[in-house]
Amino acid sequence: MAKLTTQQLEQFQQRLQARKRELMGELDDAQAEVLTGTDTVGREVIDQKDLADRAEEANLHEAEAERDHRELLVVQAALNRIEAGTYGVCIDCEEPIALARLEAWPAAARCLPCQEAHEQQL
Ligand SMILES: [Zn+2]
Q1: What are the residue ranges spanned by the domains of the chain?
Q2: H-run or E-run covering 66
């Protein structure tokens, strides 16, 4: 397969940067919501149910934030590979990753066969 053109690289870089900004925004929101809490400020007694609800809500945000955080790392790694000039090459077998795959998922670090093998190991 032909190497990616500069134009293609720039396009992927832009998409990755946009996704990164989006994820950073989501992370900020999720963390802000957990930190600021809700309407309990100033109330002297917080009942048990309230506490349970809050804990559940915090857990939910945490799971979301964790997912976003993990994707952010993957997106950042792809941006680093663009900088390093190794973008579009599978990190396992070092073969070029199919363009269609990169278009569907610009942060892809592995070609499809390697990704499938990797997921089976998990
Ligand atoms: Zn591979």
Answers
A1: 6-87
A2: helix 48-84
